[in-house]
Amino acid sequence: MARYEIIRAIDLILNAYYVLLLIRVIFSWLNISRPHPLLMKVHQVAYAATEPLLRPIRNVLAKYQRGMPIDLSPLIAWLLIEFARRLLFRAML
Q1: How far is it, in rounded angstroms, from Cα 86 to Cα 25?
Q2: What is the predicted pLDDT for the residue at 53?
Q3: Alpha-carbon gap, residue 87 to 91, rounded angstroms
């Protein structure tokens, strides 16, 4: 039973991180001239939570993305998290 609870907790944390990455991506697409204070707080939380993972990915991709107007680091982060999730769940089961 404890093993299931650990897996469920890890899954919940990873899902929350996915949502934070999605929020960050959506905010990068928006051009809000006068954002609501609540939206600004959500953006700040998403940025603070995701930047420690995205910055190293962005640094590695910098030499390959020369001049590309799109930031692929959230996509790479999603793939890495999903890969880690699958490895972890296989090891736990």
Answers
A1: 24
A2: 94
A3: 6
Q: What share of the chain is helix, strand, coil (3-state, %, to 5)?
A: 80, 0, 20
Q: What is the DSSP secondary structure assignment for residue 58, as one 8-state letter?
A: H
In which band, very low, low, confident or very high, does the pLDDT at 1 lie, cut at 50, 70 and 90? low
Q: CB of 72 within 8 A of CB of 65?
A: yes
**Amino acid at residue number 42:** V
Q: What is the dihedral of CA 59, 27, 53, 93, to 10 degrees?
A: -140
Backbone φ and ψ for 32, nearest 5 degrees, come out as: -100, 120
Q: Distance between CA atoms of 10 and 41, rounded to whole angstroms?
A: 25
Q: Is the pLDDT of residue 93 over 80?
A: no
**pLDDT tens-place string over residues 18-73:** 999 999 999 988 887 788 889 889 999 999 999 999 999 999 998 888 878 888 99
Tokens 């880690």 sit at which residue?
84
